[in-house]
């Protein structure tokens, strides 16, 4: 999918199949996405999930994140470790990301124009795989933020310290990127750990952290043909494309470009890249 291609087409066709008269690309109202978790539990809406898991309770909110923290503590400090045993897809992933950045570099003025290539921020950076294999190939400088201290320490040994200026050890639900610092904020395979509310609020903080032509890039596993899925082993949520789009709107961000990661093995979930400003 590029520029809203195949996914929006699929939604339009759904409308045709049902036989009902519909707008070609109807907005998905908040909370109407159904979903399930890995224990087989069904939820009528995502709000029902958050009401149950968090329900405005500070302790439950901490507990939600504790499970991911516990999970990540057990993983190897390597590319294979950060990719859940799929280290072999890293080169394909990185070349897809570079291709997407090159498209962002050619955004026409009518769609906001390209970003500049000064400084990027790699969010939920793991050991800095994306910074090393993608961001530093286009941007002069980068910063990384990652909550697991061992990953941050490893990133310090792997990355060019002349060009990577900051190594912050913090989780995204509390992290506040510096205002006006970034041309690109890259968020890959980590938004799935954030609650909807924390993700929207993080995007809003990112907006403040962008330079005038700056962009946020989200690269994530996405459900293309159903509702959300929660994996209870690490408290991650795989959201539908429509769900993400609704969260971008809630955060007050515009979607400039999107593209599906090409050439991934069939057994992997679809991965989409979204460019927001
Ligand atoms: C699948 S790995 C991806 C790492 C990196 N983005 C990459 O693509 O190589 C997920 C990373 O997110 C981090 N993480 C988990 N929960 C997080 C949170 N709440 N805030 C920030 N990072 C988190 C983990 O420690 C881990 O490094």
TrEMBL record:
GO terms for biological process: methylation. SUPFAM superfamilies: S-adenosyl-L-methionine-dependent methyltransferases (SSF53335). It holds the Pfam family Methyltransf_PK. Its EC number is 2.1.1.244. Residues 11-24 have a biased composition (Basic and acidic residues). One of its GO terms (molecular function) is N-terminal protein N-methyltransferase activity. Keywords: Methyltransferase, S-adenosyl-L-methionine, Transferase. It catalyses: N-terminal L-prolyl-L-prolyl-L-lysyl-[protein] + 2 S-adenosyl-L-methionine = N-terminal N,N-dimethyl-L-prolyl-L-prolyl-L-lysyl-[protein] + 2 S-adenosyl-L-homocysteine + 2 H(+); N-terminal L-seryl-L-prolyl-L-lysyl-[protein] + 3 S-adenosyl-L-methionine = N-terminal N,N,N-trimethyl-L-seryl-L-prolyl-L-lysyl-[protein] + 3 S-adenosyl-L-homocysteine + 3 H(+); N-terminal L-alanyl-L-prolyl-L-lysyl-[protein] + 3 S-adenosyl-L-methionine = N-terminal N,N,N-trimethyl-L-alanyl-L-prolyl-L-lysyl-[protein] + 3 S-adenosyl-L-homocysteine + 3 H(+). It is an enzyme of class 2 (transferase). Residues 1-40 are annotated as: Disordered. GO terms for cellular component: cytoplasm. Gene3D superfamilies: Vaccinia Virus protein VP39. Belongs to the methyltransferase superfamily. NTM1 family. This is Alpha N-terminal protein methyltransferase 1. It comes from Vitrella brassicaformis (strain CCMP3155).
